[in-house]
């Protein structure tokens, strides 16, 4: 076994090699309101004035015991429209339903206590930027809003839109030059020979280089990577523990003793006893 290669494989990609499709770098850049404003205005084709500072890694949950989500970049404009901008490098085959879940979670936090008029619910845009074509239509932009199947052109007007962006689209004639430049910057962030006609994008490109060469940000990046590794390890441990508890439960139902279960599962009897105690407490 080549332990050197295995160790190298566990190391993160250098900060200077990241593109804006990387969640960490995207968040670092979009924390600056001006950068996020430019991104949203180019994608949506309208002027946007942000009401609050953007929030990155915004944790949203409905209760302490339910699953939570972390939004890449959350923002609200002066008209109280909510924006969630996400980057996704790999096709996890669940993005449409994940975006639906995100919308529901965001909506659940927008309703103020005592407000009974659902028309008070904020408009919302969920934007997911990917380097792959989720729908196979060779388009850069896919915008989804609820509408009636029986009556073409009849929109539900519920104030929600989900936008999926494919940086590998093949219909440049249907989008703005600014959006083409933005998508090039997102995917080819380290192509430093590129000069952007949009001055705001040129500023973002220069800001990216500053961030990538900042020692403090580099330390923050390594810390974030280490935390994700620990989170994954904890999740795997929790999964193994859950599986072990289920196996023990099945063997208890078959009438096996604690020692017999330990022998069958090839673990220490004290571990079996500990898990049985936890099951009895939680049950």
Question: Could you give a quick summary of the protein structure above?
Answer:
The protein is α/β, with parallel strands linked by helices.
Question: Could you characterize what this model shows?
Answer:
This protein has 283 residues and is α/β, with parallel strands linked by helices. It has two domains: 3-213; 238-282. 46% of the residues lie in helices and 13% in strands. The protein contains nine helices and six strands, in the order αααβββαβββααααα. The protein has a six-stranded mixed β-sheet, with helices on both faces. A hairpin with a 5-residue loop joins strand 2 and strand 3. The chain is globular and about 75 Å long. Mean pLDDT is 88; it is low at 3-9.
Radius of gyration: 24 Å
Number of helices: 9
Which percent range describes the beta-strand content?
5-15%
**Fraction of residues in helix:** 40-55%
Distance between the termini: 44 Å
Name the average pLDDT: 88
- Count up the domains: 2
Main beta sheet strand tally, sense and closure = 6 strands, mixed
Number of strands: 6
Main-sheet strand order equals 1-2-3-4-6-5
- Based on secondary structure, the structural category is alpha/beta
